[in-house]
């Protein structure tokens, strides 16, 4: 009876457009203990953002005295599914998962739930049609990717007075940040007839691939005057391609990015990147605080959104020391 009443309250709250809290009765329990064996299934380790996220998780686990079972999927959704299977076999207490792709990892989340292991998603989400927060996993901790894209688009509209020929370098196909950062950006520039996305192609969130894609698109679209990259790594790759072609990034071609790593913030100071929205990778403290709250039976929001800054020519120098 109590479980049914809690579910009814949750559904009514959702219908009213309010924050919905995880219904603990529908999720695996987590006992309160002095120490935990926790899995962290990382998607890849080929860029500074991922390295900073991993270090934050490892540092916080060490500080708390928890055992961290760490895996690196090396950019493979199939391997990450296998990594989650391995954690289930090792009977970890909880799994922190940064999903490589939305659909394959939704099934992995449900498998962990069936095995009695609660899952918290970090920085990327899974397909909401296949797995739901508060039912199949506890919560998503991360940035509002749609809002990130919107902020970039809104800044660009003002900076260009609604006139731009844009190349969009998209993140990993099928990943929630790529999907949402595209959606947010495109919604922000919608209704601006002078702003055109002349090409969109994935650079897989990687620097060298971003450079290669930008080289090809630049040849096909020399009229480009704005590059919007879904992350710093692709933006830095695009800068290399622009400079090799004799173009001036930040001047005759504006460069916009999301993440806010120290190298990108320095490029804002140098005038080669015009605008960056931060996506903070330091998840450790919030992730493990959420674990402890869940074990204590406290209400956990189905989404926990990290606050993110922005970097511009006006503030980048002052904020450089605090960038990751």
Automatic annotation (TrEMBL):
Instruction: Specify where it is mainly localized.
Output: other
Q: Where in the cell is it found?
A: Cell envelope
Every copy of the Periplasmic binding protein domain together lies at 38-298
Leader sequence range is 1-24
**Record's keyword terms, sorted:** Signal
Database matches in InterPro entries? Peripla_BP_I, SBP_2_dom
Q: Name one Pfam family in it.
A: Peripla_BP_4
For this protein, the record's CDD domains field holds: PBP1_galactofuranose_YtfQ-like
Is Oxidoreductase one of the keywords UniProt gives this record?
no
Q: Which family does it belong to?
A: Belongs to the bacterial solute-binding protein 2 family.
The name on file for this protein is ABC transporter substrate-binding protein
Q: What is the lineage of its organism?
A: Bacteria, Thermotogati, Deinococcota, Deinococci, Deinococcales
């Amino acid at each position: 009876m109590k479980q049914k009443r809690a579910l009814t309250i949750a559904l009514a709250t959702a219908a009213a457009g309010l924050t919905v809290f995880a219904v603990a009765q529908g999720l695996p329990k987590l006992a309160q203990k002095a120490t935990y064996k926790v899995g962290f299934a990382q998607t890849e380790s080929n860029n500074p953002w991922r390295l900073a996220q991993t270090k934050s998780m490892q540092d916080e686990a060490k500080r708390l005295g928890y055992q961290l079972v760490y895996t690196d999927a090396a950019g493979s959704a199939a391997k990450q599914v296998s990594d989650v299977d391995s954690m289930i076999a090792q009977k970890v207490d909880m799994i922190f998962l940064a999903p490589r792709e939305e659909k394959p990892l939704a099934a992995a989340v449900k498998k962990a739930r069936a095995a009695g292991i609660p899952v918290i998603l970090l920085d990327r989400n899974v397909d909401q049609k296949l797995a739901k927060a508060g039912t199949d996993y506890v919560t998503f901790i991360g940035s509002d990717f749609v809002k990130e894209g919107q902020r970039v688009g809104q800044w660009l509209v003002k900076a260009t007075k609604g006139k731009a020929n844009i190349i969009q370098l998209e993140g990993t196909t099928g990943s929630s940040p790529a999907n949402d950062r595209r959606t947010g950006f495109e919604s922000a520039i919608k209704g601006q007839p002078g702003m055109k996305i002349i090409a969109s192609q994935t650079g897989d969130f990687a620097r060298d691939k971003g450079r290669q894609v930008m080289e090809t698109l630049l040849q096909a679209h020399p009229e480009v005057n704005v590059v919007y990259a879904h992350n710093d790594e692709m933006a830095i790759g695009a800068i290399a391609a622009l400079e090799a072609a004799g173009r001036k990034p930040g001047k005759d071609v504006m460069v916009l990015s999301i993440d806010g790593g120290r190298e990108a913030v320095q490029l804002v100071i140098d005038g080669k990147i015009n605008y960056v929205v931060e996506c903070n990778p330091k998840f450790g403290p919030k992730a493990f605080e959420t674990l402890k709250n869940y074990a204590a039976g406290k209400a956990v929001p189905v989404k926990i959104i990290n606050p993110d800054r922005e970097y511009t020519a006006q503030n980048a120098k002052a904020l450089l020391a605090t960038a990751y």
